[in-house]
Amino acid sequence: MKKILISILFVCFVILLSAQSKRNLSNNEQCHYMNFRDAMIFWESFEGADFPPADWSQIITDSSFTWEKASSFPLDGQYFVHVLYDEQDTSKWQNEWLITKSINLVGYQTAILNFYFQMSKYWGIKPYDNYDLYVIAAADGINFTDTIWSEMSTDTSTWVSWEWANAQVDLTDYIDSSNLKLAFVYYGRDGAEASIDAISISTTGGLYDNHSDILQIYPNPVSDFLYLKAPINSQVNIYDLLGNEIYNGIINNNIDIIDFQNYPSGIYIVQLKDKNINKTIKIIKN
Fold first, then answer.
1. Which of 15, 137, 180, 236 is most solvent-facing, going by the fewest CB within 10 Å?
2. CA end-to-end span of the chain, whole Å?
3. Contact call for residues 6 and 215 (beta carbons, < 8 A)
4. Which domains can be identified in the chain, with CATH numbers?
């Protein structure tokens, strides 16, 4: 009986240690999905040789504990980026910025920032609130005045420590900006690791700018059937926000009909291609 009790206590102790861990040492499975960067006006999953990526920048307060590439548990491809906490000096504040290249949103109707993050609820929310992740916007590319997201912005009941969680941020307020920059900021002390991957921006409106006479997609939002008017032999691909291709086909008629009835509610990216056109649009399924 004592041996059984000791075994139970040991298992409980191991679970507690796992919950309090400041690093993700167990999640080595990669989530492999189609790279659909062509369907986005902005995409970065840190697969390039250079870091920061071309035209990105950093504000570094501690070169030993700042944003860097890692490969232990990426969401997309082989790499992601993270900040490790300074376990040798837990009194020191870490304030590390990773800043995107310039983003031009002029001419679109809406824009959505989509990315994945990973951190610790135990050290970042409760019982300890020792560190935070932020996204801060600079509409002019210089003055970072708008905090548009933190880990608390994404419903904490929907994400789990050390597992990739999806975050979506409405950028429609920045539609008139031709030089938008976004900063991913790690801030805190005696915190834990934080990671990001698969950053993208999807838009609506651009599809109609130069081809409104030959391209139409309606209704949006869609409930049952999506109607597409496009040149015959155009390629149609539809993706969910994880990059999974849920539909592909060729336009054979003046107006093609795609059945959306069995797709779950959410955001989808429709890409249309032919020899003269390569356009994308965000579709909302009710």
1. 15
2. 56
3. no
4. 29-203 (2.60.120.200), 206-285 (2.60.40.3080)
Q: What is the pLDDT of residues 45-62, one digit of tens each?
A: 999 999 999 999 999 999
Instruction: Please state the φ and ψ torsions of residue 166, each to the nearest 5 degrees.
Output: -90, 140
Give ∠ CA 208-171-41 in degrees, rounded to 5: 50
Give the separation between CA 239 and CA 67, rounded to whole angstroms: 30
- The one-character DSSP state at 9 is H
Ramachandran angles phi, psi of 57, nearest 5° = -150, 170
Q: Which of 182, 56, 52 has the alpha carbon at shortest distance from 111?
A: 182
Place of tokens 């809406």: 110
Strand partners, 13: none
Produce one character per residue of 134-161: b if its CB has 16 or more CB atoms within 10 Å, e if not.
Answer: bbbbbbebeebeeebbbbeebeeeebeb
Which pairs from 156-162 meet CB under 8 Å and 24+ separation? 156/121, 156/125, 159/121, 160/121, 161/19, 161/119, 161/120, 161/121, 161/122, 162/21, 162/24, 162/26, 162/27, 162/118, 162/119, 162/120
Q: What's the CA gap between 216 and 232, in Å, rounded?
A: 13
Residue 257: strand pairing partners = 227
Determine the Cα–Cα distance for residues 239 and 200; give it in Å rounded to an integer.
13
CB-count burial class (<10 Å; 0-12, 13-18, 19+) for 182? buried
pTM of the model: 0.69
Q: Where are the alpha helices (DSSP H) in 21-158?
A: 121-124
The stretches in the chain having pLDDT less than 50 are 1-19, 24-36, 38, 207-212
| 8 A C-beta contact, residue 283 and residue 269 | yes
> How is residue 101 annotated by DSSP?
P
Other Cβ atoms within 10 Å of 233 Cβ, number? 10
